[in-house]
Write a structure and sequence with these properties.
Immunoglobulin-like, eight-stranded antiparallel sheet, 26 strands, 13% helix, 44% strand, globular, DUF4861, signal
Amino acid sequence: MKIKMQKSIFLILLLLCISCADESAEIISVTVSNPLDISRSFETVEIDISDVDLNENSLEVVDVETKEVIISQIVDYSPIGDVNKVLLFQPEIAANGKSTFKINLIEKKEIDSSLIRCYSRFVPERTDDYAWENNRVAFRTFGPVAQKMVEDGVKGGTLTSGIDAWLKRVEYPIINKWYERGVIEKGAYHKDIGEGLDNFHVGVSRGVGGIAVKTDSSYAVSKNFTTWKTITTGPIRTSFILDYEDWDAKGNVISEKKHISLDYGQNLTRYYIKLKGTDKVSVGLTSHKKDGEVSTDKDEGWMSYWEPFDDSELGQGVVMANPEGITAFNNYLTDKKDESNLYVQSNISGFIEYYAGFGWKKSGQFESKEDWNKYLALFSKCLENPLQVTVLQSSN
């Protein structure tokens, strides 16, 4: 049955409904505190909402002072065996500041696709890549079909567990656009038409943050990923899992599973890698033409490789989540094709966690090696001093 009513009556009832919802919708109130004397932004806060019964509803985050609704994202890790469900948002917190946020239960809404800047997917139309991006950077790595093509002598394959970089210089997503161009014209994304391009050669190198195990004077590495699983895409984070076939490191059988995620506003991808068969792992950055400048800081836990790059310059970097585990840096140079890499080696106990990425001068994000190294040092400082979250109240 359809009910007709005058517009003014409808607005009064709507306002009453909103008022009632506002009074009852709040489920949690939290404060976010900044322990550093620098302002913080583009850092993701995670709230465990495993015990919240959404019942087909959703959540919104509201700044108590400004009344602004903050962009947020719910991530459910249960499909990959983790028990927690988390709410993500990125507050702006002043130096030594503190802000309070209400988390409200709201009616589930259709996600605005224009907000999906953190994105990843399996790409069967380009053999079997897995690609991921945010508003600043993009990456890809390679699957079993590409590996088999190389092993069978079929042209067009790729055999590497290295991480390839796609040098974008626009805020909007480019993965689907570039692959679509590549279907129409082979190799089209190797040309810059104003958005950036793929001119980063990875080969068998570690690319931007691939891992290896040192064996005497050389390094053993895995092959391509064997299976993949996308966990989430969204305005704040994209996250996925890659599995690898067991590989040999001079008689030691290594097993490897990568949980990879990339957050909005960051140039560095997070890697949480579970490993068996070794108690030491090296993370690498490809040296390309071996004409770059190396910078390392063991105490802060980062390394950098800044190099001339075609008509611009490029910085690669790794920030370790546990600087205390670092045992050595090694600028490993060899005449073997694509095997020269800058490495940081770390002790591990079943897993390694680190962040790896790049900054392209032509994107306008970084002007010099000094700018890039400052970014890595600040990233490390913020990792060591995360935003502090306190739950103030809950209706449960």
